[in-house]
Structure formats: C-alpha cells, structure tokens
C-alpha cells in the first residue's frame, strides 16, 4: 500500500517503484475500462491501491489502442453475424432462380398438346383440314361421298376432338398453376431475404453509430482526465518551487 517517506514519496502498487506523491493516483478515481486493463497485468490491483500518473497514462494509451482496434474489427464481426443468422434460420432459399419441374410423361405430353392447340399453326392446319373435307365431299364426290352435307361425321369428329382437348388443356393449366405457385414462393423468399438483410443493415448501422459515440465520449473523457492530471502535476510542481 502507500508508503510515504520524509521526502513525500510513495511506492506504486504496480511497479513497486518510488514516485513523487504529487503523481499518486488512487484506484477509485480510475475509470472502469482502464482499471480492467491494469488488472489484466496486475489482477491484485483494486480501488484501494495507488498508481503513478506515468503508469496510468501508459494504461490509458493501451486502452485507447485496444478500443480503436476493436472498432476496426467491429464491421467484419457484424457481417459474420448477419451471414450466420441468415444461414441458421433457414428462411432463405439457396437457389431461387430455378424452379424444379419434375413432370411425368403424360404431363409433358399434355403441355405439348396444349401448346400446339393454342397456336396459330394449329388453327391454320385445322382450317385447312375443314376446307379440304368440305371440298372433297361437295365438289369431288358431288355431295354423295362418305360424309355429305350437313357433314354429320365431321361434326362427330369435332365433338370428340373438343371432348379430348378440354381435359388435356385443363391438365396443362394445372401444371402451369403449379409452376406459378413455385415461382411465387421463390419470389416471396427472395423478398423476405431482402427484408431481413435491410433490417439487419439498419441494426448494424445503429450499432456502429452508438458504439462509435460511446467510444468517442470515453476517449474524450480519458483525454480530459490525462489533461487534468497534467495540469495538477504542473500546479504541484509550481507550488513546490
């Protein structure tokens, strides 16, 4: 503890060296951050011990250096936190650009038939077939062929074609609805990912602003303490002179 001599000196509880009593600083007046830095090297040091101003300034500088080094590493640490949160929550699709299309052979044929039945090529071919059928029965066969006017057989064929084509088109539409649902699901997950990343970005910026403000205030307080100790030392020396 404090050991004063006739020349008003004291022994530091850290280095056990002798200093002028004007440089003595109590552990109670040391800020918590600097006190922790001192206790890293000297765990036995507490608020009842004393330290010299020169030693205190060393630990103040060490504390500021560690604080700034931590400040530089904060950005990378938060980026890793964001990535870990996104990966662990399992809310985002890894690959949302491709939709899985595992169709059976019947479904693929239904898609092809519906695609062909809804094209101008089908209309052209079918119109040509109807005109050829009519010309064949009316002109070539003089309306006495296998399907004379009013073309009962042709109407039967058209009715059968419509009966078959309708469910095929409905099958294709159901397939398209499944594809649209998959795309909508992937779009939702992409939007959710963007929302989470924006929210985390706001939290990240708020954290950085608050942390920087606290760090700057603490550094300013440390500088003010060092300046006050320096002024007190100058005043003590001037009074002694």
UniProtKB/TrEMBL annotation:
Record-annotated membrane-spanning stretches: 122-140, 152-171
Coiled coil: none
Coiled coil is among the record's keywords: no
Domain of life where this protein originates: Bacteria
This protein's record includes keyword Membrane: yes
InterPro entries from the UniProt entry: DUF1003
Keyword terms of this UniProt record: Membrane, Transmembrane, Transmembrane helix
Annotated PANTHER family: INTEGRAL MEMBRANE PROTEIN-RELATED, MEMBRANE PROTEIN
Official protein name in the record: Putative membrane protein
